Amino acid sequence: MAPNFTGVLKRHRPQERIDRKRDMNKSKRFFPNPATEDHLDSSVEEESTAMAYREPTTYDDLLASLGSSNKVVADINRRRKREEEGKSDTESDEDDEDEENIGSEDQSSTYGEDDEIQGADQESLLKYDDHSEQENSEYCETDEEHELSTNGQSLVAVSSSSTSSAFSEHLSHTLSCEEVETLPKGNWKFKWEAPAIGMPHCTWKGTRPDFLHVAHSDATYGIKPKLFKHWLQLYEKAGGEDFESSTRRRFFSLCNRYLDILHSNKRPFYNRGIGEDLSHMDAYLMHSLNHIFRTRDLVKKNESKIAKLSPAEILSDDGLRDQGFTRPKVLILLPLRSIAFRVVNRLIQLTPETLRVNVEHPRNFIYNFGCEDGSENDDHKKRSKPCDWQALFGEGNSDDDFMLGIKHTRKSIRLYDALDNPRKNIRLYDDFYSSDMIIASPMGLLLAIADAEENKERDVDYLSSIEILVIDHADVMSMQNWAHVALVVEQLNGLPSKQHGTDIKRIRPLYLDGHARFYRQSIILSSYLTPEINSLFNHHCLNYKGKMQLEHEYKGVLSKVVHSVDQIYERFDADSMIQVDHARLECFTNKIFPKIKDSVQGGVMIFVSSYFELVMLKMFLMSQKASFCVFDEHSNHKVKIRARQEFIAGSKKIMLYSERVYFLLGCNKIRGIKKLIMYSLPERKEYYPRIMNWIEESHDMESTVLYSRFDQFRLERIVGHANAKRMISKEKSTYVFR
């Protein structure tokens, strides 16, 4: 029966609202503090229904608690347990359940809307909008939707596409006891390798059976038709051809498999890779939009069912458990505001016009994330710096502290607008708890986490239900501070400290059981691989669907060294990563420093890749009373100028120079270098020939490079895959390149 005007303005009937409030009050104990997380992790729902006993889940406890004061709920819970044991009460009950399931499959989906808006007036307006939406065929889409049915089983409709149900298949999976036990250990074994199409010398490898032939030939892509049609139009309008074989289409197909992905060979926009960078950005943004809209479709479809059910009936249908602790489902980590500016603008472009009639707060966004005005003198200085630095830092806002909540909303200021034509907006600067997507920097989130630890009234519970994590330009973040990224990822998918208005009856079991981190998809994009990025991917990305990782065979950059420099590579041994720093310093003090200590000539530059190494060397040189100056990112402008002058004049024999200062400031050539010592290899391979070419031409140009087997990733990028393998495995410890 269609609701009247008064009924439309209410989310539920009055008695149902009272029952709901009572149920939520009784279930407050199911939002424990983090100290009880270990207990929740141990409550695992068994995959096999034939077993006689299994540990009760948090949801089972909830039903038992509610059943103690409600006979109907108790009867439903009893029947539910009998069904899980393979038993049934009557044949008619089974027939009724079958008819109910078939009805849930046939029901069409609609685009959903805000579920948690503060204020009674806003909630009423929203609910009115929802009913108007259901009755308006213009906003009702007959797209094939694969929702979660009762008992958490996936209802996969017959479809020619193998990926159209990837969303529901991924979230409907129930972890087995073995998976819950083995996933936290992170012991991944790659089972297959396949050439990466369109990427020479690159190979994909994965932990699950090879599916690339399916992903690369899928005709429907698993994307909502309205989104795909708009995406294809944008691609063709920009002059693109053969979308089927495009990079963005192939990478989207990989993302839509919901595996964890590590792509460590993406050419960034600031290194002459604008097209490739945009393709990967398109893929993960479209995957994120597809996930958000499919989630909202399922929620709204269930909303229409719930309006006709009693609280007891709601509890009996596991298919209505479609939410997390909080609303945000996608987190995109980016290093700089300028990059966030590009991503958000592209996100708006990828959203069909019917779903973004208006973008709210665009001026604030342009002001806070757009280009900064600079003087003509600043522009002249920027033009003298390397091209990659100009593209990354010189043409946009380089601030690294930001957070932005984005919500796809259907709200209207006036009630009659919502009745006649619900407006679909993209709201920037939305409250994080009501946002669909959060775009932030590691620094911005880290400060929010620290603030929540100091102020008990604040929290970061909006990170508790992230289902897709994207870390783009991870190489830039490694130059900032990778420890910030690791701390943020560790904070994801924890148990919230507050309820935040969540309807506990609709929370997925995977959240209540503390298994959300095993369902989170992590996509990491970088232009190169570091041990820290690799460690995060192996030990903190624990998706039960498995992993895919890209490997690349580098040719090296030795040929780009213009001068005839004797490049002497000295290998030192270390038993573990923990001992590398100490072993490197010991090698320098015993083999390298005695040769330059009493040098009258001077002009010795010592290049280090990290600030920690620079501090260690600085302390050592001070203990030896050596003549040196420091050129690093933490020194002010006057100190840098004085260091240059003293080094060129010879009053300081040694200069300590860090990779981070070159990356962050794009410094011009340092003159006066007669001998170069690379205390550690640079992470960015293009820096190696640039620094080598700074050496002043002479008949005995020489450089010394220290390395160990733990520097394999850097070594491969600089000397090539074959040379690196030989230099690490052979007994010989000294190698010379000219």
Brief synopsis:
The protein has 30 helices and 20 strands.
Explain this structure:
With 738 residues, this protein is an alpha/beta fold. It has 2 domains: 191-372 and 385-552, P-loop containing nucleotide triphosphate hydrolases (Rossmann fold); 558-737, Rossmann fold. Helices cover 44% and strands 12% of the residues. The chain has 30 helices and 20 strands. Helix 4 packs antiparallel against helix 5 and helix 13 (274-306) crosses helix 15 (337-350). It is elongated, with a radius of gyration of 29 Å. 38% of the residues are buried.
Features:
738 residues; 44% helix; UTP25_NTPase-like; seven-stranded mixed β-sheet; elongated; disordered N terminus; eleven-stranded mixed β-sheet; alpha/beta
Q: Topology, pairings included?
A:
Blueprint: H1 5-8, H2 14-26, H3 37-42, H4 58-67, H5 71-84, H6 91-106, E1 109-110, H7 120-135, E2 140-141, H8 166-172, H9 177-182, E3 192-195, E4 202-206, H10 212-215, H11 225-237, H12 247-255, E5 260-263, H13 274-306, H14 311-316, E6 330-333, H15 337-350, E7 358-360, H16 362-369, H17 376-383, H18 387-394, E8 403-410, H19 415-420, E9 424-428, E10 437-440, H20 442-454, E11 468-471, H21 474-491, H22 509-512, E12 521-525, H23 531-539, E13 547-552, E14 566-571, H24 577-597, E15 604-608, H25 611-623, E16 628-631, H26 637-649, E17 654-658, H27 659-665, E18 675-678, H28 687-692, E19 702-707, H29 712-719, H30 721-729, E20 734-737
Parallel strand pairs: 5-12, 5-13, 6-10, 6-11, 7-9, 11-12, 14-19, 15-17, 15-18, 16-17, 18-19
Antiparallel strand pairs: 1-2, 3-4, 4-13, 8-9, 8-10, 14-20
Region (Disordered): 1-115, 129-157
Domain UTP25 NTP hydrolase-like: 260-419, 423-548
GO molecular function: rRNA binding; U3 snoRNA binding
